[in-house]
């Protein structure tokens, strides 16, 4: 069996096991369990981001940043009135650690900046997904699925449109395989996925059907942000000559590889839900 076929088999097997488990957790477990899952993913995102940017340097710094991301997520979810203080405290802890344990003065500012970025990625940005599930009440599980549908339908649409029509490079310096045609196909995929999800959710669950303009308001900007998130991770990996952010998900690489688009799209969904739809 070729390596490509073998990798595809692993990817499909992982998806076949993980997707039903994920859906069961989202729909059957309480909101705090979803928070725990998202926060665990945030820990991994911060760890992987720091691993990419630190290489093999300063394991303590990577661990502290990852733990602070969990603390940030917890404060933002349970006691948001103390978020500013906790954010300042977390950043000071990072500065103090590197101040007294650095090994290379030329690298320390890079490590501090990478730690802070990783914390914001995993502990703040991703937590908007938990907040969306919590604040949406009984419709919360459907909202998290809607975000996933918009993001991952984009991947599907971009793949098929790129293979069929792709001729013009989107951003070759960052991601040589991506094309403008694929990006447009990704937008189309997100729109189709969002309308399908909106229709199905209204049939099977506690979901108030969204109007056409509301679906488009979620799907189009959400798709664009998702694609930007994908490009952002590609830029970071290319800058550090890394293929995958990790190996924790068999056949799919690391957590950051799998949810890079979700990271950028989730805040948009939360903003629209809280300030436009709610």
From TrEMBL:
<comment type="similarity">
    <text>Belongs to the CDS family.</text>
</comment>
<keyword id="KW-0594">Phospholipid biosynthesis</keyword>
<protein>
    <recommendedName>
        <fullName>Phosphatidate cytidylyltransferase</fullName>
        <ecNumber>2.7.7.41</ecNumber>
    </recommendedName>
</protein>
<keyword id="KW-0548">Nucleotidyltransferase</keyword>
<dbReference type="Pfam" id="PF01148">
    <property type="entry name" value="CTP_transf_1"/>
</dbReference>
<keyword id="KW-0812">Transmembrane</keyword>
<keyword id="KW-1003">Cell membrane</keyword>
<keyword id="KW-0444">Lipid biosynthesis</keyword>
<dbReference type="GO" id="GO:0016024">
    <property type="term" value="P:CDP-diacylglycerol biosynthetic process"/>
</dbReference>
<dbReference type="GO" id="GO:0004605">
    <property type="term" value="F:phosphatidate cytidylyltransferase activity"/>
</dbReference>
<keyword id="KW-0808">Transferase</keyword>
<comment type="pathway">
    <text>Lipid metabolism.</text>
</comment>
<keyword id="KW-1133">Transmembrane helix</keyword>
<dbReference type="InterPro" id="IPR000374">
    <property type="entry name" value="PC_trans"/>
</dbReference>
<keyword id="KW-0443">Lipid metabolism</keyword>
<keyword id="KW-1208">Phospholipid metabolism</keyword>
<dbReference type="GO" id="GO:0005886">
    <property type="term" value="C:plasma membrane"/>
</dbReference>
<comment type="pathway">
    <text>Phospholipid metabolism; CDP-diacylglycerol biosynthesis; CDP-diacylglycerol from sn-glycerol 3-phosphate: step 3/3.</text>
</comment>
<keyword id="KW-0472">Membrane</keyword>
